[in-house]
C-alpha cells in the first residue's frame, strides 16, 4: 500500500500531443541546412508558423502571427523532402499530400505531428523538458547510400498504405509495388539533448536517439545527452493513386524524393522549434492526450479553416505543377 500511495503522490504527467498541420508552403527553402539560400538545393514541403523564411534566428515563437497547425501557439516549422513520380518518358510530377486519418476533416495536405513522452501511454515517469527558443535539429541524411545504413536509421520509414489507417510493416525504403492507399513517410526525431546546444554543425550532434521502431518506448538517455525532450515524429501521407496505372512494366519503383533519391535511403526531416512562451512545457507537464489538449486544456487551438488560411509568400518562383522536365534544382 505504501508504494501505491507514493506512486499516486508522484503521479507522472502523461501528456502526448498528436495534431494536424496543413501545408504552409512547398518551396526550395531550408533555413537550417542552407540558411539564406534562395533557392535551397532541393524542394521541401513545410508546415507550421508563418515566420518561416530562408533565414530564421532568435525566438520564432514570438514572431509568428498564424500557424497551419491545430495548436495556435505553435509557430514551429516542420518539413521534409517532396515526393515525385518519374514517368517512363522521363518527366516528373509532384505527388500530392493528403490528410491523415483521425484528424478533423478538411486539412489541406500537410503532416501529422507528434510530441510524445515515451510512448502513447506513458511518460516513463520522467520530466520532459521542452525545447528552447532557437532550437533546431534534423534527422536522417540525403546522402545515405545503402539499405543497411537506411535500416540503421531507426524511425525513418515508409509504409505501403492499404488505407489511411495502415501502420505496418514499416519499410526502410520505397515499397516495391503500387500501394492501394498511397505511401506514408514517417520521421521520428531523437529526444535526448546535450543540455547545452540549440544546434550543432551537422544539426544532429546535440541530440541522441534512443528511439525504437514505431512508437515503442525509447531507451534511457546517455550521460552525454542526459536531458529528455519530447519525442517528435511526423507522418506524411502521399496520394500516389493517380500513378497506379503508370507503374513501369519492369516493376521498378517510379517514385523519387526531391533530392534525387529513387531508393528512399536518404529520407530525412527538419524541425525548428517555435512554440510561444512556455506553451509546450505546460503541455508536457499536463496529463492531456491528443485532442483532449485542445480548447485551452491546456493549449489554445483553432479550427481547420484558420489552419488552412495561414500561408507565407512565394520566395522562390518556379513551377511545381504538371509534368516537369526535371525536379526543381535537380539535373536528373
Ligand atoms: C524574411 O526575410 C527577409 C530578409 O531578411 C525579410 O525582409 C522578411 O521580412 C522576412 N519575412 C518574414 C515573414 O519574416
Ligand atoms: C509524359 O507522359 C505524360 C503522362 O502520360 C504526358 O502527359 C506527357 O506529355 C509526356 N511527356 C513527354 C515529354 O512525352
Describe it for me?
Strands 1, 7, 8, 10, 11 and 15 form a 6-stranded antiparallel β-sheet that branches. The protein has a 5-stranded antiparallel β-sheet with strand order 2-3-4-17-9, with no helix packed on it. 45% of the residues are buried. By secondary structure, the protein is mainly beta. The longest helix is centred in the N-terminal third of the chain and has 8 residues, at 2-9. The protein contains 4 helices and 17 strands. The protein has one domain. One 2-acetamido-2-deoxy-beta-D-glucopyranose binds at residues 51, 53, 55.
Structural class: mainly beta
> Which ions and ligands are bound to the chains?
2-acetamido-2-deoxy-beta-D-glucopyranose
Which outline best applies? globular
H/E order of the elements?
HEEEEEEEEEHEEEEEEEEHH
Summed over residues and divided by their number, the pLDDT gives a mean of 94
Low-confidence segments, given as residue ranges, are 1-9
- The whole-angstrom Rg is 20 Å
- Give the strand content: 15-25%
| Strands, count | 17
Report helical residue fraction.
under 10%
What is the number of helical segments per DSSP (H or I, 4+ residues)?
4
* Biggest sheet layout: 6 strands, antiparallel
Distance linking N and C termini: 67 Å
Short summary:
By secondary structure, this protein is mostly beta strands. The chain is built from four helices and 17 strands. The strands form four sheets. Strands 1, 7, 8, 10, 11 and 15 form a six-stranded antiparallel sheet that branches.
